[in-house]
Amino acid sequence: MAAPESVIEIGSTGVRLLVAEFTNDGQQNILDRSDKTLPIGKDVFTSGSISQEIQNQLIQILIRYREQLAGWGISPSECTCIALSAFRDAKNCDPIMDRILVQAGFHVRIIDGIEENKLMYLAVSECVKNETAAFKDADTVILVVGGSTTEIMMMSDGKMAGVHSLRLGTVRIDQQMKNQTSSYADIQRYVQESINNTKGSLESELNLSHVKQFIAVGPDITLAALNVGHPISTFLWEITKEDFSEFAKEIQGYSVDECVARFKIPYSEAETLQVSLLIYNLFLHLTKAEKLIAPETNIRQGLLLSQHSIENEELQKEFNMQITASARNLLRKYHGDEMHAECVRMIAVKIYDTLRKDLGFNEHARTLLETAAILHDIGGFIRYDNHNLHSSYIIKNSEIFGLSRKDNTIVSEIAKYHKGNSVPQDEDSFLMLPRSDRMTILKLTVILRIADAMDRGHIQKFSDFSIKIQQNSIVIHTKTTNNTVLEKIALNEKSGMFESVFGYKVILL
């Protein structure tokens, strides 16, 4: 049995601890958990900063968690401590992170909305993998309503079609609306209009009216499941659309105090229960799903799973497939040349695998290269002239499942330099990046340039070829009878950076 592992999550409404262990067969056993209410989001959405009072309470909670973890033989340095959107949006988050490190010993890592999606996907897929076959073959929406944002993942035929982090959270709405109205009807209209404003963007990736499976995650959903749902397994419920709508409607008539008394929940959770169920219900009715699937899981469990996915080859392969599926869907949204993109991806991966010893990268870097190869020409949607610059802009400002903001920056930089004579080292923004990121960008960029050159005419001449390293050259043997003059010219134009980075001359035979 492996040693216990722990995660602390600093969210909009509270600070939560999870201690778990993984069995030899990969199963996750929960050993300990704690949940302390703390209205961080209310502070941030009101003033833009976290108040001194809330800071002090946060430090005290973390000190208590440090003592709790000591009972499991876990030190603060061994615990993963993450902060979500409310903390991320606070103007004073940096000094607070320093206070936490000095006074409580925890190093806080701030994660963005798309990384939240990634972690929640892992948690949900683990929870439903043995219970719902539709997860792999039906159009599916996974929705998580939080205090600051609503995270939505859309899947088609088991592949990621789109991911979005919407600024539509329960605490955020409460703070925006409380000075304007106390009417639930006004709040409902506000939420409905907010959803309608994003519906068009969402449906450019997946037609919500075709969605047959609706998966909702969160403590409010678990509350609904316990009251009107039916258990599927230990940590999985289903609620019919009709029953969920009736429950959400019933809650509208309760005061906050009545919610606290009836459901035995903290006051802060009761304050946002109506808005939370409203958001879930409105999204549910955009689909044709007849029931709501409710897994009892959370981002903390997803984080532990992500740390083990590196060791779990099958899980890592599935996750990488979802990243590239999301990239392909983004390319399709901008009417890119999918056959060229796939050809360049295939060639780039083959070069990458040949150069593994020279690269010194992990499997994630290979996925970043695949993503860049799929999206390198996406900027042609704006204008073909200087399309590499437009590609970089679109990638940097898009949400690609499984990629953090750092990953997005790397992919966008690779796309920026896949053509032209300029080199990354000429730009101050590149030189300011960490050395490891600069080397990742350089090595993957020069591979993409070679792969792109081999499909210069966008007609996929090379479906069968081999690559070998011979002395100081990388030799590409093609088995085509087609004229390759154009590709050789393109390689001559683009191989200079490759030779300067790897020291290999590129030869096309």
Write the layout of secondary structure elements.
Blueprint: E1 5-10, E2 14-22, E3 28-37, H1 40-47, H2 52-70, E4 80-83, H3 85-89, H4 93-103, E5 108-110, H5 113-128, H6 134-137, E6 140-145, E7 150-156, E8 159-166, H7 170-177, H8 184-203, E9 213-217, H9 219-228, E10 230-233, E11 236-240, H10 241-252, H11 256-263, H12 267-284, E12 291-295, H13 299-309, H14 313-333, H15 338-354, H16 356-359, H17 363-375, H18 387-396, H19 405-416, H20 428-431, H21 435-453, E13 465-470, E14 473-478, H22 485-502, E15 505-508
Low-confidence stretches: none
What is the rounded Rg? 25 Å
Total beta strands:
15
Cα distance spanning the termini: 54 Å
What is the global morphology? globular
How many DSSP helices? 22
Helix content: 40-55%
Summed over residues and divided by their number, the pLDDT gives a mean of 84
What structural class do helix, strand and pairing data support?
Answer: alpha/beta
Oligomer: single chain
As a percent range, the share of strand residues is: 15-25%
What's the arrangement of strands in the largest beta sheet?
Answer: 8-7-6-9-12-11-10
Q: Report the major sheet.
A: 7 strands, mixed
How would you describe the overall organization of this protein?
It is a single chain. A hairpin with a 2-residue loop joins strand 7 and strand 8 (159-166). Helix 18 (387-396) packs antiparallel against helix 19 (405-416) and helix 19 (405-416) packs across helix 21 (435-453). The protein has 509 residues and is of the alpha/beta class. The radius of gyration is 25 Å and the shape is globular. It contains 22 helices and 15 strands. The model has no long low-confidence stretch (mean pLDDT 84). Helices cover 53% and strands 17% of the residues. The strands form three sheets. The protein has a seven-stranded mixed beta sheet with strand order 8-7-6-9-12-11-10, with helices on both faces. A five-stranded mixed beta sheet has the order 3-2-1-4-5, with helices on both faces. A three-stranded mixed beta sheet has the order 13-14-15.
